[in-house]
Amino acid sequence: MTHFARPRFPSRTLLLAALTALVAGGPLSAQVAGGKPGGRSDDKGTRNRNNQNLNQPLASSGSFYGRIVKFTPVDDDEGDLLGTLSLRGYTRTNSSMRLKVFRNDESSISLGNLKIPVDDYAEMLAKGVQVNANWQVIERKDGKPHKKITRSTPKELVTLSFKTVSVQGKIIEVDGDVITIKVVPQNGMQWPDVQAKEADRSRHRTVTATNINVTPRKAKIRSRKLKLRVVDEVSDLNDLEDAIIDVGDLEEEQLVEATVIPGYPKIGYVTSLRLVTELNKIEKEGEGGNTRIGGGDRGRRRTDG
Predict the structure, then answer these.
(1) How far from 107 is each of 66, 98, 136, 163, CA to CA, in Å?
(2) Nearest to 298 by CA among 175, 184, 171, 181
(3) 22 by DSSP, 3-state: which?
(4) Is CATH 2.40.50 the classification given to domain 53-163?
(5) CB < 8 Å & 24+ apart, contacts of 161-164
(6) Rounded to whole angstroms, how far apart are CA atoms 194 and 65?
(7) Structure pTM?
(8) How is the chain split into domains, by residue range?
(9) Which of 31, 142, 274, 289 is most exposed, with the fewest beta carbons within 10 Å of its own?
């Protein structure tokens, strides 16, 4: 009779099998973090999860911050419908939106304290201008509630206001009622669109074992050249003594503090502008230093003699 030798180390065989399975499945840290072998994050999987979030049911009303892509007036008389407003946002969940604009008592578009007349919508809703829009879902014609509200569900504009930013800098050019200024936000604040993008990246950031204690780096505060239109009944212009002046009194190289509605990279609007003799020092986050645009007394108006 033939006798087979009994394995002397059965536990060693089991250990090797377990190690083989672990190597085939990738590092444990990658599996826990939902990433690929080697600890890399699964970017495709992250994008798929974000796309799933975009398809989640929406509320029946809300607000949207972004820039105007286009306002398309209706070609023919379609009752109270004036046109369609297309917006582009700065976050993944609010990347774009199309809103019907109707002529009714509830809908209003305001620039500062001025309610814009309906006939001026096409001119004032210019491409690139940053706005805050409040919207609501359009009710179904049969009166029944929507089973599911998604990005494609028809929506209408309720109110719209233009996004204002306090800036400081100097005048680059004056051309009729349009001025070009090179500015940065006041008080060390970031541009609103950059701020929105940073907050969105932080919300969708994939946390892994290697970056869990790493603070995301903030973007530098950069100056921008803005083209801005001076609007009657809205734009307040003041000299060094706070006296009211006209756009014709402005000159290149004058230093200013202003509240503006960015239309970057297109034309925005001025709500207020004041000449100053010097600019406040602004400390940029993450750079550990102060910076000023211009300096001296170039904000003073020229005088004869």
Answers:
(1) 18, 15, 11, 18
(2) 171
(3) helix
(4) yes
(5) 161/109, 161/110, 161/131, 161/132, 162/110, 162/111, 162/112, 162/129, 162/130, 162/131, 162/132, 162/261, 162/269, 163/65, 163/130, 163/131, 163/132, 163/192, 163/261, 163/262, 164/259, 164/260, 164/261, 164/271
(6) 12
(7) 0.66
(8) 53-163, 166-291
(9) 142
Sign of the CA dihedral with 170 first, then 287, 259, and 176 last: positive
- Which structure tokens are listed for 200? 């969105």
Distance CA 67, CA 97 (A): 10
